Amino acid sequence: MADRPRIVGIDLGTTNTLVASVRNRIPKIVPTDRGNLILPSVVALSSKGDLLVGGVAKDQMVTNPRNTLWGTKRLIGRKYHSKSVEDLRGAFPYDIVEGPGGDAAVMMGGKLYSLPQVSSFVLSQLKTIAEQFLGGPIDAAVISVPAYYNDNQRQAVKEAGRLAGFDVKRIVNEPTAAALAYGFNRGLDQKILVYDLGGGTFDVSVLHLSGNVFEVLATGGDSFLGGADFDNRIMEYVLERFREEAKIDLAENTIALQRIKNAAEAAKIDLTLIPNVVIDLPFIDERKGKPLDLRIPLTREFLNSLTGDLVDRTFEICDRVLAEKGIARSEIDEIILVGGQSRMPLVQQKIQAHFGKPPRKGVHPDECVALGAALLGDSLGSIDAVTLLDALSMPIGYALPNGRVKRIIEKNSLIPMVKSFRLPPPKEPSAQFIELDIFQGDSDLMVDNEYLGTVRVPSAAAGRKIDFRLTEECLLQVEVEEASGVPRKVDLATRDTPEQLKKALQEVVIKRENQPVASSSGTSDDRGLFSSIKSIFRRG
User: Fold this and answer.
1) Which member of 73, 268, 502, 534 is catalytic?
2) 174 catalytic per annotation
3) CATH code of 232's domain
4) 117 lies in the same domain as 147
5) Averaged pLDDT, 321-333
6) Is 11 one of the catalytic residues?
């Protein structure tokens, strides 16, 4: 009997990407790059115009930094004018630009690339390698994403998979995939906490495992907290020390910066095993024709002092996630570590101190997400499939005229799910359309949240039922009841520059906050200003 079509599991990471496959119920990582199990998530254009992916691309980060793309997972699915992209714009040597639809995009070799395109180059390379290793075509995949990714980011990763030639069967949250790798077919009845500190993101999820039912009780995270931030702290320290000692600022020297970045990451990794290292970079610059070397010692203890606040932030998030569901630390049976940065001795010490128990050994922090994604892919459609009851990491709602958000689906709601409500009347009595601007995020103010799109329906639909439907992949679908009573799926419209709208609204919010008494419903002046701002963005 022929084997079922193989579905691979992919962990598309900020720093590295892995692919896993299941044979005889056992998941294994497929060797990818130069015999390694990991493929660096790096894409580059060589001086000859060749597209490079993985280790060969990473090799030219120092010599060709402007045409070498890394860390793009932090940008994918985000708008160019969003605060998150603004904060990152100076963090990379390559150019971040505005792409179609207002999305963040990047330049490489003088050409604009969308971020799903960049990720698709990595995924396409994985597809080729996996097909060669496994001996046959692979068309389907389960791809993992941080639990704290919003709808736009999930859609962008799915698009990257499609561009790479995959039928993306599921998008799965990374902590949930890690829990699968830990608990699949073990017959456990436990509450576990997955602490996932990767290269670019931090996620924490609390799950209840009961046999092969994996229920997410609570989830949270920070999509701007990861190993790269630890590297940056070392880089800042090294630059400052060199500035003091040599009276030279290397901050504008892109090649020197890239060498320091690589050395900082290597030093951080070494300090997980040994207490002292020396960052030694010969001929980092020159003075009057003579080479200058950089030589700076670094201890584990000093690294802890440089980055202790980053580690503390992860535990603040853990505590918040537990508190939101009223779960005591003592109720957690096991702590699973995921992501390379979780290997840091300080992280492991603080887990022991914080939870009163050491993290679980025997779960590989780099591999478990890809292994879990492969297990999920293999179980899809089988009789004894796993049951994943995942949860929404950030609430979804629509903007009110006063710039606040009316929440429709609350954080930690179990998915898949449907939430129904009645369409409000149009904002102006004479308006031909009802327009609901949909946002996702933890804030009550739309300016702090991520714009997902706009529901635009004729005014006659006022009072009809509208459904916000979350799929098992945590993707949003919207259905509006027709006059006949039949629900119809509605595509979300987008505006070219929703971030300009948000900036204008931010001014209103600041104005209101500076007033002695702030009304939650907003003043009539506010409402008039919101209305006039929004009219700019109407698309006939």
Assistant:
1) 73
2) yes
3) 3.90.640.10
4) yes
5) 96
6) yes
